[in-house]
Each structure stands twice: as structure tokens, then as C-alpha cells.
Hints:
By secondary structure, this protein is of the alpha/beta class. The protein has one domain: Alpha/Beta hydrolase fold, catalytic domain (Rossmann fold), CATH 3.40.50.1820. The protein has an eight-stranded mixed beta sheet with strand order 1-2-4-3-5-6-7-8, with helices on both faces. β5, α3 and β6 form a beta-alpha-beta unit. The chain contains nine helices and eight strands. The two termini are 27 Å apart.
Amino acid sequence: MTHPLKKEGNFSYLEIGEGTPIVIMHGLMGGLSNFNGVINFFPDKGYKIIIPELPIYSMPILKTNVKNIAVYVAEFIEHKKYKNVILLGNSLGGHIGLLVTKLFPERVKALVITGSSGLYESAMGETYPKRGDYDYIREKAENVFYDPIVATKEIVDEVYASVNDRNKLIRTLSIAKSAIRHNMGKDLPGMHTPTCIIWGKNDTVTPPEVAEEFNEKLPDSNLYWIDKCGHAAMMEHPDTFNDLLYAWLQQRNF
């Protein structure tokens, strides 16, 4: 990540470009750099890319849940005085985007989800990586992608450090449990915000049937598949992801 983070009050975020704001929410174990492909593409197309650091590790433990992080994102949007933002989220970030859209629909003109939790209870992982077991964590990280080579040593090291930090581990487990409790199946039919669903055909964390259910239940959604792709399409196939998303945004005049 070559761009410096901006800090204002309780908010720390990346902001690049000018134009229609796309606010990005990273996943539970993901970082801002997961969206480098998006960062390198959309500012040249008339969009401002904003990625707030989600307070997963800094909220009081009793308040560390999906809903409070969604409220934090809404407060950030209000703080920046953005109107009619496009939300983009991967994995837990997609779940947060869905919840922001449900709770604050007047602030969101479009939603983009990829590998999102919110429907599938195993989306947070059936077992959490064993602390201290580097090989196990490397294997779990590789399983996120269709091509395990995408799970670089840097990515594995970051996950390993997180699960061996007791403070981060407790909060990670807390938010994972809250994500399971916050199943959004009953909410989706009442959410009319235009939604772009981009999904890896080989996602084993949130399998293809999850994308199909999102598409069936959301009243105004389009589903696009990426072949030979796992849970983080914007990392594994950034060019295809960008092309699909840009075409959808243009089609919808966003």
C-alpha cells in the first residue's frame, strides 16, 4: 500500500481520486491492500475510492459486533458528508455493507458484494486456525483462493500474527459469532438498493449457492461469475473483477 492513511478523529482511512465515492469494507482477516486492483483502476474512471480501517480490533469487546461496525461505517460516511455512496465489501465487509444498506438505505445508492457472509453460517469458518500452528494457518489461507499461490507469505504472516495476538483473537471470534447471529435471509427481500454480486465459481468459504440465494432474495440484483476463482475475486482476478463491476456501474448509470 503506497498511499498514506488519513486520520480524522476516530477514523483512519485511505482516499484516492475524485468523483462518485466507492466506500470499501475489507474482510475479517483482510487488509486494505486486498483491494489494490480496485484502487489502481477506478480513480481513473471518475470514482473516488475510500477504504476506512474497520475498528475490529479497537472497539470495546462487548461492542465488537457486525451491527456496531455497520453503524461506524455509516458515521464515517456522515463525517465525510458523502451522498449516495456505492458500497463494496468482501466476505465480512460484504455483510457489513448489507447491514449498512438495510439500516441506512438513504445513504447508499448501490451495493457490491463478493464472497459475502450474511447468509451462510460457515462463512466465518467452521474452525478457527490453531494458534501457533503456522502450517495449518498457511493451509487455511491457501484454501481461500482457487490458486494457492495467491496466498503469499506476507498474507500468511499477517493472519498468523493476528491469531497469535490474544486481543485480536478474542475480537475476531466475537465478530465471527455476531456475523452468524446476524443472518440476513429475512431482510433481503425488503432491500431494494441495486446490488452487483460478483462471485468466484470455486469459492469454498461462501459456495456458489450462497451467491444464488443472494441473487434470488435481493429484489434488484445482478449476479456475475468468475471462473477458477475462490473467495476473494478482487484479489485473485482483479482485471476481470474490475471489468465486470465497471460495466455494471455504467449500465446502471452510477
